[in-house]
Amino acid sequence: MGSQFAGNSGWRKLDVGVIGGGIGGLSVAISLRRAGHKVTIYERADFAGEKGASVSCAANGTRWLEEWEIDVQKGDPVYLKKLISRDWYTGEPYSVYDLADYEKRWGYVYWMFHRQYMHAMLKEAALAEEGKGEAAKLLVNHKCKSIDMEANKIEFDNGVTATHDLIIGADGIGSAVRGVLGIHPEKRPGPASCLHANVMTEDAVRLGLTDYSKDNALEYWGGQEGKFDKIVLSPCNGGKLLSYYCFFPRDKGDYTSHTWGGDDLPVEELLAPYPELDRRVREHLAIGIEVQPWRLWIHDPYPYMNKKNVAILGDAAHPMMPHQSQGACMAIEDAAALGIVFNQKYFNGNVAEALEIYSQVRLPRVTKVQAAAAKAAYNINERIGFSSNTDVEGYKVEDESKKLTVEEMNGYDMYKDVEEKIAAQKGQPWTEKFITGLPIGLQLSNGVTIGA
């Protein structure tokens, strides 16, 4: 197989335009910069930043941060040691997934970042003069108005136009680029509403409340009884900040329109849906600050992620419910896939052909994660990690053979997946012991063995 990709003479340096300067946009800028291309990032706002709080980065995301030589400590992360699912009323642990052997097993750790800090870390890596590849450029106040797909030309609201060899839409759930590709999603409101709040660990400790920062864990209350009441706690900034996502049925409160960064809601609104919640976590929510609604929309999977020389990634390409904590990892994986298909080993100079491979590699995987995230909304046992704890009392999933497992998320080799798709595109036999990036013989915790 090795010889098939040796001495690729068609490679050329591309001038790439990335629309959107969030986590996905910066990730793809880094990935393509490392692959030898010139990148300009266009951000619609007057600065490139992030709203919200925690971002989960499991091994399947961390591996790319390491491959891109990013100094992860600049993101002030928390090293996660456990996933803990707790009883709604008592707070007693219901299912614990221990990450003690996680790094040994998968080669990478599970980080939890504060979104703004992660963004700053990625921005520095994308724009810094030092590091492999040409530093990306960032232009703010450039909102995409239209794209001429024949001429590869972007027109912005400010009257500026730009032509690029490759255009990538990393412009989020309300993506303009998605519409250019002819994808107009049918979306419907999710069954749950969500309020987000932050709690400062020092405030909790000063008041004599439980110090959850010591757990180094992603912690869940509820989600075991087919209900949408669920609290998710993720520690950020080395444990100094606790980020709470609080879900409840939409009929208890519907936030139809909102933007992150609006006025904070009163803390009473946060507590109202939860009279019977474990007292210890309720005491935390009572001192919550920056209470913000997060509107959840369900999008059915899109049919493709590319057309001609334009592609989409992240929330622009596959918005998903947050219940697998894989949104950022999927955007990072998208970015990695683009860096691979356009690297010096595989890229033959044909942009549209390379984007076909990108779409074929990414769509099946993100579609599966999307579906699994929707199921985990009301059943914590469907969540990666807890889905391995089959001996827990009350454990039940919709379909054991189709549940998402930690093995397929972290045992995945994207290079092999790309090579298999390129072989098919060229009509060549595929002889390596991998199927869609998973090693033949890999045993998943749902009883499935790859290639059996």
Automatic annotation (TrEMBL):
It holds the Pfam family FAD_binding_3. GO terms for molecular function: FAD binding; monooxygenase activity. The keyword Secreted does not apply. Coiled coil: none annotated. Residues 14-370 form the FAD-binding domain. Keywords: FAD, Flavoprotein, Monooxygenase, Oxidoreductase. SUPFAM superfamilies: FAD/NAD(P)-binding domain. This is FAD-binding domain-containing protein. Transmembrane segments: none annotated. Belongs to the paxM FAD-dependent monooxygenase family. Pathway: Secondary metabolite biosynthesis. PANTHER family: HYDROXYLASE, PUTATIVE (AFU_ORTHOLOGUE AFUA_1G12410)-RELATED, MONOOXYGENASE.
